[in-house]
Amino acid sequence: MKGAFTYLLLPHLWSSRNRAQRREKGDGVRALLFGGVGVGVFIALFYGAAWLTWQLQDYDELGDYLLRLGLSWIFMTFLAFLTFSGIVTALSTFFLSDDLRLLLTAPVASRRLFYARFTRTVSQSSWMVVVFVTPILLGVGVADCAPTRFYVTSILTIVPFAIIPVAVGTACTLLLVNVFPARRARDLLMLMGFLFSGAIVILLRMIRPEQLVRAESLPDVTGFFSTLQSPVTPLLPSFWAGELLFASLKGGWDLLHAGALWTTALACCVGLRAADERWHFSGYSRSQEAPKARFAHLRALDVMARFLPLSPVRRQLLVKDVKIFLRDVSQWSQLLLLLALMLIYLYNFRVLDLGRIPYMSGFVKNVYAFVNLAMAGFVLSTVAVRFVFPMVSAEGPAFWLVRKSPISMHDFLWSKFWTGLFPILLLTETLTIAANELLDVDPFLKIVAAVAVVFLSLALVGLAAGLGARYPRFTADNPSQVAGSYGGVAFMILAVLFLIVMIVLLAWPSTTYLFYQLRHRPIGTGRLVMMGLSFGAAVAVSLVTWLHSMRSGVRALDAMSN
Amino acid sequence: MIAVHNLVKQYGKFTAVDGVSLDVPPGEIHGFLGPNGAGKTTTLRMIAGLLKPTSGRVEVNGHDVAKEPELAKASLGFIPDRPFIYDKLTAGEFLRFHAGLYGLDGKGVMDRVHEMLDLFELRRWENELVESFSHGMKQRLVMCAAFLHRPRAVAVDEPMVGLDPRGARLIKDVFRRMSERGVAILMSTHTLEVAQEMCQRLSIILKGKIVAQGTVDEVKKLAGGSDDHLTSVFLRLTGGSALQEIDEAV
Fold first, then answer.
1. Same domain? A275 vs A373
2. How would you list the strands of the sheet with B2-11, edge to edge?
3. What is the pTM of this model?
């Protein structure tokens, strides 16, 4: 046992066991929250997959064809995710993980260390894929009355399918760590962010979803299917996995694709191990070097900050936060990814030809304006939980510096709020205005949405800053960990509830106004008052959420100092 | 024994360690002194096999660290300046795991673990999570782990930092006993009194180069001063004696 690579995984298993045995405050609520969300997602995916499979069964061979294609599509999506996840995880497990300092000084054979690290990389990169794909395959299996062999094959498919892209990702990391200047080890994350964003854009453009709603632009049914099938190539493991599962679903065996999956996975392991033996130590040695300061001379920022109407304390806090943000590549590279997703989102509005729907285009456009507002709100919440919620926690062990300084916690938290508010407001406002322009919605709705975004931003950024101060995690390794904590999840739930309330309060008076305008009828005074009250309630809810959250956050920080 | 031959480590254009050579024979406690950023930790990390030298060679107990890393590491006990310990493991679990890394097996392992925990006065904390330990306790736990497999050579970076006087005394005694039994110890330290008291020979490193090497008396002579105290000798050799500005600054 002690000679096997699995021995090196024991500390993580023991640590998990010890963590589970020693319960901490809030564990129950956290388990309930995460468990509830998990079960909800599982059920939704299971029923979604089962429903779709049932629908496809009505179309006999065509249904089978689409199901077969769908399986390949699902694995194709996961293939891109696993490769990227493998790159990022391998950077941590093979090069930046703290326990390497212990393991590399011990007489552990490099081969043994490789297998232990690779097992960790595969499991850390792929657990989410397994969590998502399990209910989907179960749903397909149950709906299609699949034989037991389908479920066995599913397990035998997922294992090599996860190994291949993660091995490719690990090989990329190994190569990049050895090729790039060592002081930039963490900067690799940024590069990966770019690559992944690019991959998503390419993938989505390969789908060309707009062609599917323009049946006349396709020459015939063959053209329709070739559009669907274009990114599914027989050379990719996603195709092999899809074929293998489809064969077992129909009670057959597909040894060719099973063989292709397993032999490729094994070849990847062997090749990667050889590369690791050759280049891991030099890469690890390079990654030990201190990272060079990026944006070391931000004089322009200092000059600009001098002109801001801020107290010296707030100005210095702002300058410090912006500098740290710009120098931490892992922080802003995630923004790039978000930007790429936003561009795709806006592009979809551009290609969405709603004018083609007779009689309904005006109505659909205006409904879309609210869908767009909800989406913008959700993007806002996601950005806030990732960037604003961890702001207090990000002070980390250096928080003593703030606490020992003659700064009130009020000043401290409000400085965090304003730092977060302006970029988020700019981002969400741009997204909303651009999408509404592309949709060509009614001018009244454009104004309502633009004003609503201001209040949404105030409330959600305030809520994130306040909850971040109430539930800080000063010991977290990175902001993502803070965002995934109990407070982060609580924020997301409250943010979604807040958005629902806001959409309801804004949608009723807006649609009433449009309804009367469309019929060229004047609105009665009583109705006008009700509409005003509804808009007023939306403003009040936003302001209360904003100010109450901030006050509660300041109180929590004050209590911490006492 | 630990033998370092013409060791060089470059980070881009910056040379952190520049042709360092050292020889620590069995039974010797060798002090490795130098100001902050002189290259002590980098040298020790190369000896431990954590960093790849740009050039040069390191031997531990006759095994080349680059060519026979497992054999070299098996006979070395390394105590880094910033040790890693799994926070969510208990002291006992950590030591058991560490023993396994060095191939220690069988019933004797737990006896050895208890022996080390007793020696470093941590036995009553055996089943407590490491995250609840103070800095000094963690330091003693790391020493337990480093000596668990009875190494023939020890490389230690700042062993006295964070230890109370009792802990420091304990470490000194342990090092002396180990050296009497033939273990070669290379010890980096800033505590010059400790170096003067314990080390048979010293190497002083400055800007990556060894500027003085020999017994304590030889190093004093080399510095050319009449002062008996090692602190003055160290300051003369490392150019840190001009501290008059302190009065003005304070």
1. no
2. B14-24, B2-11, B55-60, B63-64
3. 0.74
Please give the residue range of the domain that contains residue A446: 328-561
Measured distance CA(B244)–CA(B235) in Å, rounded: 13
Residue A207 forms part of a structural domain: yes
In a domain, A5, yes or no: no
pLDDT at residue A211 tops 70: no
CB B132 within 8 A of CB B124: no
Q: Is residue A308 situated within a structural domain?
A: no
Query: Which ipTM was obtained for this model?
Result: 0.85
Count of structural domains within chain A: 2
Please, which residues have CB within 8 angstroms of residue B197's CB and are 6 or more apart in sequence?
A: B172
A336 and A429 share a domain? yes
Q: What is the distance between the alpha carbons of residues A305 and A298, in angstroms, rounded to a whole number?
A: 11
Residue with tokens 């302190």: B246
Residue at A415 is within a domain:
yes
Distance CA A23, CA A20 (A): 6
Q: Is B64 part of the contact surface with chain A (CB cutoff 8 Å)?
A: no
Could you tell me if A483 and A415 lie in one domain?
A: yes
Tokens of A33: 């929250």
Q: B106 CB near a chain A CB, below 8 Å?
A: no
Residue A182 pLDDT grade (very low, low, confident, very high; cuts 50, 70, 90) = very low
Nearest chain B residue to A288, by CA: B51
What do you get for the CA distance between the two ends of chain A, in Å?
Answer: 51
Q: Whole-number mean pLDDT of chain B?
A: 87
Based on the domain organization, do A208 and A355 belong to the same domain? Answer: no
Which residues of chain B does A97 touch, with a Cβ-Cβ cutoff of 8 Å? none
Which B-chain residues 26-55 have CB contacts (< 8 A) with chain A?
A: 45, 48-52
Paired strand residues for B184: B153
Q: Number of A:B CB contacts under 8 A?
A: 81
Residue type, B236: R
Question: Per-residue pLDDT averaged across B122-136, rounded?
Answer: 90
Which residue in B has a C-alpha nearest to residue A280's C-alpha? B52
- Mean pLDDT along residues A382-386: 87
Co-location of A387 and A525 in the same domain: yes
Q: Is A476 on the interface with B (CB under 8 A)?
A: no
